[in-house]
Amino acid sequence: MGDEVKLHGTWFSPFVTRVQIVLKLKGVEYEYVEEDLKNKSPLLLKINPIYEKVPVLIHNGNPIVESLIVIEYIDEAFSGPSILPKDPYERSKARFWTKFLDDKGMPPLWKACWSKGEEREKAKEEALESLKILENEIKGKKFFGGNKIGILDVTADFFAYGIPILEELTKIKLLTEDEFPCLLKWVTNYCNDPFVKEYFPVDDPLAKEYFPPKGPLSASYKVGLHQSPPHKHAFYGAAFLESQNRRPKYISDIPE
Amino acid sequence: MEESSSTSNSTSNKGVKVVGFWVSLFSQRVRWGLKLKGIEYEYVEEDINNKSPLLFELNPLYGKVPILVHDGVSFPESRIILEYIDQFWPHNPLMPLDPYHRAQARFWAKFADEKLLDPAWFVLNLEGEDQERAAKIVSVHLEKIEEMIKGKKYFGGNTIGFLDLVLAFIAYILPAWEEVASIKMVDPSKFPGIATWTDNFLNHPVVKTEYFPPKDQTLSYYKCRRHELLPLYKSYGNKIWTYIGTQ
Q1: d(CA A117, nearest CA chain B) in Å
Q2: Residues in CB range of B99: below 8 A, 6 or more apart
Q3: Pairwise CB contact (< 8 Å): A95 & B75
Q4: Which residue of B has its CA nearest to A61?
Q5: Sign of CA dihedral A230, A232, A234, A237
Q6: Which of helix, strand or coil describes residue B159?
Q7: Which of B73, B100, B115 sits opposite A62 (nearest CB)?
Q8: What is the pLDDT of residue B220?
Q9: What whole-number distance in Å separates Cα of residue A228 and Cα of residue A216?
Q10: pLDDT in tens, B133-167
Q11: Which of A36, A104, B68, B212 is deepest in the core (most CB within 10 A)?
Q12: Which of B39, B87, B116, B147 to mutate to test the interface with A (most CBs of A within 10 A)?
């Protein structure tokens, strides 16, 4: 007995968040260690010499890296509710879709947030293609995992809060009601799920207005930046504006 | 070399079909995986340079080989197929049994496809300084593989497994690309462990009995690819390096 579980991560990384949600779903107690990626600890470099990235899960001294691999490990190594489906076909399907999300879904979306001009337009096109595929996949389901959240929902975590931010800041609607009615419903369902809610602090009335996505972002991120730790949305909002060479009006320190 | 898969055998195990391409290293993984499990399958050749509608019907998102069709259900992505095969037919396990070693196998498989195979493809299709730079990246990453094989007969331990099948391209595809592109990537004096494993793998009693792409045709095929892709990749200039990562 006496499992020692440590998770090295950064508070704003969607790859870390997904692991935290899975640990919570599985009911695993762990110690969280915040890493400063601009100033990587010798420990991080030692335990993840190949990628030097987070998340890193250390279970009884054994390190496991790459978020999707970590999630499968947690599912196999600990007892508790299944994260991946048990049936071989459904399991393969889940692996396929999470790989799709990480290969074709996240990169253009991430790029669309931080790039400019033609590059951003191209990334947005690719992101929209992937969103159309996801819309098809979520049709008729509450979550990608069925009636409760599964590995694909958790992997798509960034879509739930990243897209609304991007839309607000670029003033361009990606998730329109016409084209993506099911995905929009999913965003609301996902963000209201009790396991997920912890990672979207909504105890501030202005932030509450923002989540589910509606209401002024600028208010929420202004407020968010004064919370501690900084509100994720505020971070992405501020960092986005920085990338566009526009300094957000009300903050003096942008969290990194 | 004749194919040993049973294309005419109608008693194939629950309707197992592999849609592949004769030289594709990804298709080959699946063929070896099924062979190691003793699962008979029907093989369907697909020309990836002239894709048929069937390919997009079975793999609508990517339109790529290999695709495993089992009982009418299709599975793309070679590593995912191997894990499916392993779970559905648990005898002669391909994956390690404990979660930690399974995680390690999955990690190295991902590493091999992203950090080894991608740069190696550029070694095949670039020249001059660019080619040398790509070869250096391959070499650095191969060192990690060399470290892993030390003291082991196979990456799976005493028996061949998932990681051996995923890394198999080191044993026969990289040497072909070396010959076509006139550059060394897997120097046996630098990587003695890998050299020994190559022999063990290619001479494995079961691996040996499965279809294997003929060497001469393999070389001709990749000569053609290099001829086509060299000018294209050259035109990308420095963008290539953002794709495979600088090191």
Answers
A1: 18
A2: A73, A76, A77
A3: no
A4: B100
A5: positive
A6: coil
A7: B100
A8: 98
A9: 21
A10: 999 999 999 999 999 999 999 999 999 999 999 99
A11: B68
A12: B87
**Residue B157 Cα, gap to closest chain A Cα (Å):** 19
Based on DSSP, count helices (H) and strands (E) in chain A, helices before strands: 13, 4
Rounded Cα distance between A22 and A157, Å, is: 12
Residues 34-73 (B) with a CB less than 8 A from some CB of A: 61, 73
Burial (Cβ within 10 Å: 0-12, 13-18, ≥19) of residue B193? middle
Type of residue at A49: P
Average pLDDT, chain B: 91
> Omega before B66 cis (within 30°)?
yes
By CB atoms closer than 10 A (0-12, 13-18, 19+), residue A110 is middle
CB contact under 8 A, A72 and B107: no
Minimum distance, in Å, between the CA of residue B6 and any CA atom of chain A? 24
Q: Are A211 and A201 in contact (CB under 8 A)?
A: no
pLDDT per residue as tens, chain A (256 positions): 578 999 999 877 889 989 999 999 999 999 999 887 777 888 888 877 777 788 999 999 999 999 999 999 999 999 999 999 999 999 999 999 999 999 888 888 877 766 778 887 888 888 889 999 999 999 999 999 888 889 999 999 888 877 776 677 667 778 888 999 999 999 989 988 888 877 654 443 434 433 333 333 334 444 443 444 445 655 565 565 555 555 444 433 333 3
Q: How far is B231 from chain A (nearest CA, A)?
A: 24
Range B166-178 burial, b when 16+ CB lie within 10 A, else e: bbbbbbbbbbbbb
Which residues of chain B make contact with A62, given a CB cutoff of 8 A?
100
Q: Report d(CA A16, CA A36) in Å as an integer.
A: 13
The conformation of residue B190, written as its DSSP 8-state character, comes to T
Q: Locate the DSSP E strands across chain A.
A: 5-9, 31-34, 56-59, 62-65
B184 touches chain A (CB under 8 A): no
- Residue B91's Cβ-count burial label (10 Å; 0-12, 13-18, 19+) is exposed
Distance from CA of B185 to the nearest CA of A (A): 20
- Residue A41 in tokens: 């600890």
Total number of residues shown for chain B? 247
- Give the one of A66, A69, A95 whose C-beta lies nearest to B80's C-beta: A95
Element (H, E) at B76: strand B73-76
For residue B144, the chain A residue with the least C-alpha distance is A50
Give the separation between CA A222 and CA A250, rounded to whole angstroms: 7
- Give me the interface pTM, i.e. the ipTM: 0.89
Beta bridge partners of A62: A59
